[in-house]
């Protein structure tokens, strides 16, 4: 399976299932040093109004800092493999950003958890994983 791949994208949000997805991706990447592993996390930019602009700015900065800390932990984990690895923090709706990132970076595979840290749940899949499965231009593995 790995012989046909050059790039794997992992959608990561710090949830237990995203940690399992990262573990699965690392195990696949270990099979071939030529496989590149990209880990992406997406943060939503809070909606501002004329009444709460300063609070929105502070919330955005806090979200960004939390994402940086989370990705530092991921980078430490990735040091255990010889493959080329990169981590990315993007801003926007996670489902769209994951799909776009994979397409724009010629990913062969996306690995993600069936549910993330989102609040409301769909019947079988979380809304982000559901969107990515439907719209991705490459294969998707959903970890549960």
TrEMBL record:
Q: Which GO terms describe its cellular component?
A: cytoplasm
The protein's UniProt keywords, in alphabetical order, are: Cytoplasm
Q: Where in the cell is it found?
A: Cytoplasm
The record's Gene3D superfamilies line, in alphabetical order, gives: HUPs
In terms of one coarse class, where is the protein primarily found? cytoplasm
| UspA domain span | 6-144
Q: Name one Pfam family in it.
A: Usp
Q: Which domain of life is it from?
A: Bacteria
**Coiled coil segments of this chain:** none
Similarity remark: Belongs to the universal stress protein A family.
Q: What is this protein called?
A: Universal stress protein
């Amino acid at each position: 399976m790995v012989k046909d791949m050059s790039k794997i994208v992992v959608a990561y949000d710090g949830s237990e299932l995203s940690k399992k997805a990262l573990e699965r991706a690392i195990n696949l990447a270990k099979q071939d040093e030529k496989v590149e592993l990209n880990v992406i996390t997406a943060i939503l930019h809070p909606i501002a109004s004329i009444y709460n602009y300063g609070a929105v700015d502070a919330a955005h900065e806090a979200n960004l800092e939390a994402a940086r800390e989370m990705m530092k932990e991921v980078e430490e984990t990735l040091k255990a493999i010889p493959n080329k690895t990169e981590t990315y923090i993007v801003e926007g709706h996670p489902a769209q950003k994951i799909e776009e990132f994979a397409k724009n970076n010629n990913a062969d595979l996306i690995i993600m958890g069936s549910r993330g840290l989102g609040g409301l749940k769909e019947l079988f899949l979380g809304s982000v994983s559901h969107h990515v499965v439907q719209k991705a231009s490459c294969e998707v593995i959903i970890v549960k």
